[in-house]
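Field reference: sequence -> structure
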Amino acid sequence: MILEPPEKVSQQQITLDVREIEPLLQAPSMDIKPWPGALINLKDGRRMYIREARLDEAPAMMQYMKRVMETDHDFYDIVGARVYAELMGWYRKRLKDPYVLVGLIDGVWAGFANGRLLNEDINISLHTMALLRGGRIGAIMYYTKAYYAFEILGNKEWWATYESYNGWHRWGVGMAQPSYPWPEYQHELGGARVYYVTKKYWDKVVKNYARQMVGSELIFDNIPAEIVEINEEMRVPEEVVV
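Structure field:
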């Protein structure tokens, strides 16, 4: 848009350094407590280490999600596309206060969970995926990020929505999550319904339900050094088995 100035100006053109523009485009980050890293024993005997993903791992994760986009069952095509965009938003600093958690088994990327903070009170769940079969990895990753929201970050509400029937059945129905009135409240994933959990509901009901689904406890202390070391570098799975 071009409009004639209503006053004489001494400088007809103004040049901006892109470093001056970037603060207007990149949302100032909140002071978010990091995920401390946790170990969990899977029901099939494997051990999965859950840590924060590193930004330099985003390109490999995005390449894997391109392959997930080609899967045409259970809405994995749209999940792959949206997770790709979320990873890119994190990588290019165009997503406000994101967190990305990965579950690793002997260095292989096995589980994924991400979300972002709307504010200090509300944690928006984005996506959860199991990339390897067995061990209830998807349930573990969902429990992990809810635990992160309520137990570590101290959030008051958890907002989720669902693209697949399986996710809705296991977590929306399974947790008996209420929903806010639609369309007054809309989740940022396509304007879908907002299903939510409050801290009080988490403490009284949901935490125990999720623990039962997982079948094991998160271990934060005395994690063997060899577990941390073998999962320092992440390898994406060779096949897409979603």
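Note: The CA atoms of residues 115 and 125 lie 4 Å apart.
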